[in-house]
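User: Please fill in residues for this 394-position structure.
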């Protein structure tokens, strides 16, 4: 039963098979009912000078809301490179307008699709959102995937390392992969995934299918060996390390085994505050109790804040501060945890994380108050050292 569930999850994540477009096709023009954030644009006007990212999303879906700050950061990061991100919703205009009004931090264009016309042109029969489509400067559709993969893809495109010919071949192999999954043939799934990874080592679907192959055969050690090989080829992908830690956690690995991975990540991502904060939280809360690392969690969180941009703010800063506050809390530095979490609450103002950050702050404040009560009570109950009355004897 578990294998069937995994197959369904993988199939739902597969890109291109049900789409109306294939890489290399001319990107259809947008049909927009109303623009709600940013100036109106058309693909024809942007052709020749801009890379366009179309994000199909919905206000009601949590994962879509979670990707909004990510897309906002990506828009800011690549704005000088001519990248234009457009979020398209098929929902009612009043609903989307209300959502945009309540989320002032959205840093890219938002539009309401006209009777799902744009959605059908791009998504076809594929129901899976969020989904992003990248249209090149020549107006050609290049890539479709998840918003969390977008940063790496854009980086590759802007550096001239994206190969449309390879993407076309990978698309056909994705079709073969889907068919193999529908037949629940682990061996065939593994072979096709190998073919895809030979052409694109970072292909998320193939990587997940390969891990499924090892998991379905209850071969965690082979999965770890596979991940270590991938890490050597693509050392800057934190997801491979987090998956490795997940496998180690499920198989009851020791704290020392995990510590090697923690140290490897801290070294590899020493200049990436987002990854360091993520790792810190993983060590604090994500591992079986006792197999994280209080010391390394604090080291990673401190480093994240040390290298975080001085003029940085908002959600990214809030996440880094949250990690540091949790690391201080786990270290027994309760007053420091409270002070840092207060800054996190301020950084999350206007973001979905704000209510939860306030709840965490109250928890730390309560822990701090209880700690002081215990210390005060202990001091009152302390017995004076023996021999204090010797000088009073006659």
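Assistant: Residues filled in for all 394 positions:
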């Amino acid at each position: 039963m578990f294998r069937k569930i995994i197959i369904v999850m993988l199939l739902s994540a597969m890109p291109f098979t049900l789409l109306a477009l294939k890489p290399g096709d001319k990107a259809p023009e947008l049909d927009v009912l109303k623009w709600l954030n940013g100036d109106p644009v058309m693909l024809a006007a942007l052709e020749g000078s801009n890379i366009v990212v179309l994000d199909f999303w919905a206000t009601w879906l949590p994962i879509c809301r979670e990707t909004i700050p990510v897309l906002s950061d990506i828009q800011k990061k690549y704005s000088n490179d001519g990248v234009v991100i457009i979020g398209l919703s098929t929902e009612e205009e009043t609903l989307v307008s209300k959502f945009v009004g309540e989320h002032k931090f959205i840093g890219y264009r938002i539009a309401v699709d006209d009777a799902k016309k744009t959605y059908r042109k791009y998504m076809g029969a594929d129901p899976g959102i969020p989904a992003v489509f990248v249209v090149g400067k020549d107006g050609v559709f290049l890539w479709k995937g998840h918003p969390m993969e977008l940063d790496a893809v854009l980086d590759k495109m802007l550096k001239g390392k994206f190969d449309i010919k390879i993407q076309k071949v990978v698309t056909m192999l994705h079709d073969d992969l889907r068919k193999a999954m529908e037949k629940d043939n682990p061996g065939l799934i593994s072979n096709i995934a190998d073919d895809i990874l030979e052409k694109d080592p970072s292909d998320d679907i193939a990587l997940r299918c390969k891990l499924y192959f090892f998991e379905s055969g209850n071969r965690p050690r082979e999965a770890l060996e596979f991940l270590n090989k991938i890490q050597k080829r693509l050392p800057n992908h934190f997801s491979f390390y987090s998956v490795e830690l997940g496998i180690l956690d499920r198989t009851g690995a020791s704290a020392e085994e995990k510590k090697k991975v923690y140290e490897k990540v801290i070294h590899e991502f020493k200049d990436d505050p987002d990854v360091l904060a993520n790792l810190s939280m993983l060590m604090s809360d994500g591992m079986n109790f006792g197999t994280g690392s209080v010391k390394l969690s604090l080291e990673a969180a401190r480093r994240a804040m040390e290298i975080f941009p001085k003029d940085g703010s908002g959600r990214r800063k809030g996440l880094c501060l949250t990690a540091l506050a949790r690391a201080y809390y786990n270290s027994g530095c309760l007053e420091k945890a409270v002070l840092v979490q207060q800054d996190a609450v301020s950084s999350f103002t206007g973001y979905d994380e704000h209510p939860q950050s306030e709840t965490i702050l109250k928890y730390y404040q309560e822990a701090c108050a209880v700690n002081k009560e215990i210390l005060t009570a202990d001091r009152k109950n302390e017995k004076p050292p023996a021999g204090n009355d010797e000088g009073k004897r006659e």
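For context: The longest strand covers residues 51-57.
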